[in-house]
Design a protein that fits this description.
138 residues; mainly alpha; 5 helices; 0% strand
Length: 138
C-alpha cells in the first residue's frame, strides 16, 4: 500500500475524531477504541518490532500523562494509533499542539486546554500533503 494512501486513510479516520473533540472536548469510545486495538497489529505490519516497541513507548507515556490528569484517555488512544501508523505524523501533531499551548499561554497568560485530536488530524494531513512516508523517522 502506498505511503500516501496510509496517511490519507489516517487523516480520514481522524477527521470525525477531530470534529467531535473540537465541538465537545471528548472523543467517543466507538471512534477511538477500534483504532487503539488496531494499533498493535498495524505496528507490526507497517514497521515490525521496532515500530511495535515505539507504539508501546507512546502508549506508556500517554498512560502516565493520563494518570497525572494532563492528557485525556481518548488522546492517548489516538496517539497510540498514530505511533503505529505514522510516528512522524504524530510528531507533527504534537508540535502543533505544543505551538497551540505556547500561543495560548502567551496570549492569555494562563494554561489552556486544547483538543488534541485536532492537532493530530493536522499532523496527519500535513504529512499526507507533504508526501512523506509513514516510516519511523521519515
Amino acid at each position: 500500500m502506498p505511503p500516501t494512501t496510509i496517511l490519507a486513510a489516517l487523516a480520514l479516520f481522524l477527521l470525525p475524531c477531530a470534529l467531535q473533540d473540537y465541538h465537545t472536548r471528548r472523543v467517543s469510545n466507538w471512534l477511538n477504541l477500534p483504532a487503539f486495538f488496531a494499533a498493535w497489529p498495524l505496528a507490526l505490519w507497517l514497521g515490525g518490532e521496532e515500530r511495535l516497541f515505539f507504539t508501546f513507548a507512546v502508549f506508556a507515556g500517554c498512560w502516565l500523562a493520563w494518570g497525572m490528569k494532563s492528557m485525556g484517555a481518548a488522546d492517548g488512544k489516538l496517539a497510540t494509533c498514530m505511533a503505529a501508523v505514522s510516528p512522524m505524523a504524530l510528531g507533527v501533531g504534537v508540535l502543533l499542539l505544543v505551538a497551540g499551548f505556547v500561543g495560548m499561554r502567551l496570549r492569555r497568560g494562563e494554561a489552556a486546554s486544547l483538543p488534541a485530536a485536532v492537532a493530530f488530524y493536522g499532523g496527519a494531513v500535513a504529512m499526507a500533503l507533504a508526501g512523506f512516508s509513514p516510516g519511523l523517522w521519515t
